[in-house]
Write a structure and sequence with these properties.
Length: about 130
């Protein structure tokens, strides 16, 4: 297995010892993204809809840096601090997939880094 760490210049800088993306065996694993503006490092807002939209835009930027799109996504995991936000996040999330959506899990987390309300990680296939 050959693992590589691709460059993703449009992504927000990691806040810990991890890579934004890693690639192996034709799969691209994108670390959890949150609703932070990658240029200004300012949170998208204090509500889950704004954060979910910015999170999906951040994923779109990372996918674009890697020559991929949402059509290449095969699995996502959504982390929410409050499962009551599921319908709101689901609406935003769903608007980014034109064809058949990928497999997905949604998990309620006790808390997320930086006080964010939603985080989404992605697996894409080349």
């Amino acid at each position: 297995m050959a693992k590589s760490i691709p460059e993703v210049p449009n992504a927000a800088s990691p806040i810990g010892p991890y890579s934004v993306a890693a690639e192996a065996n034709g799969f691209v694993f994108i670390s959890g993204q949150v609703g932070i503006n990658p240029v200004t490092s300012v949170p998208a807002g204090d509500n889950v809809v704004d954060q979910a939209r910015r999170t999906m835009e951040n994923i779109k930027l990372v996918l674009g840096d890697l020559g991929l799109s949402f059509d290449d996504v095969v699995k996502t995991t959504i982390f929410l601090t409050d499962m009551a936000d599921f319908p709101l996040v689901n609406d935003v999330y769903g608007s980014y997939f034109e064809g058949a959506p990928p497999a997905r899990s949604t998990i309620q987390a006790g808390a997320l880094p930086g006080g964010y309300l939603v985080e989404i990680e992605v697996i894409a296939a080349r």
